Design the sequence.
C-alpha cells in the first residue's frame, strides 16, 4: 500500500501544480495498484476507502479538465460496486458501515457532478432550487 500512497502524493502535487498529464498518469497507476489491493482485501475498510479516494481524485482531475464523461465514469465505478456490495453483503456487519459510508461519499460526488452540469448548461437557476428558510 505504500507504493499507492506515494503515487497519490505525487499525483496530488502534480494536480496542485496544474500538471494535468502527470497527475492523470500517477492517478491511473495508483488506481491500478489499489484495484489489486481492493480485490484481495475488499473487507479492509482502509483499503476500501483508499480505493474510493483514488477514483474520486481521478474524477476531480477530469472535472478540472472539462472531461465530463471521464469524470462521471470515475464517479460511477465505485458507486455501482459499492451499491452492489451493499445488496450482496448486507450480513457482513464489520464492513457494512464502511460500505454505507463509501456509498454516501459516492452519492455526494454524483450530486456535485450533476449540479455542476446543470449550472454549466445554464438551463436551471440553482438559486431558485434552494430552500428558503423563514
Sequence:
Amino acid at each position: 500500500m505504500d507504493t499507492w500512497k506515494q503515487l497519490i502524493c505525487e499525483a496530488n502535487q502534480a494536480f496542485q501544480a496544474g500538471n494535468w498529464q502527470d497527475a492523470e498518469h500517477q492517478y491511473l497507476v495508483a488506481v491500478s495498484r489499489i484495484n489489486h489491493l481492493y480485490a484481495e482485501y475488499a473487507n479492509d475498510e482502509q483499503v476500501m476507502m483508499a480505493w474510493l479516494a483514488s477514483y474520486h481524485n481521478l474524477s476531480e482531475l477530469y472535472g478540472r479538465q472539462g472531461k465530463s464523461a471521464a469524470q462521471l465514469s470515475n464517479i460511477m465505478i465505485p458507486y455501482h460496486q459499492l451499491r452492489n456490495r451493499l445488496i450482496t453483503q448486507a450480513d457482513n456487519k464489520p464492513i457494512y458501515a464502511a460500505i454505507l459510508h463509501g456509498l454516501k461519499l459516492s452519492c455526494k460526488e454524483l450530486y456535485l457532478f450533476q449540479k455542476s452540469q446543470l449550472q454549466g448548461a445554464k438551463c436551471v437557476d440553482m438559486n431558485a432550487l434552494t430552500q428558503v428558510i423563514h
Notes: DSSP finds six helices and no strands in the chain. Helices lie at 2-16, 20-40, 45-64, 68-88, 93-121, 126-129. The two ends are 50 Å apart (CA to CA).
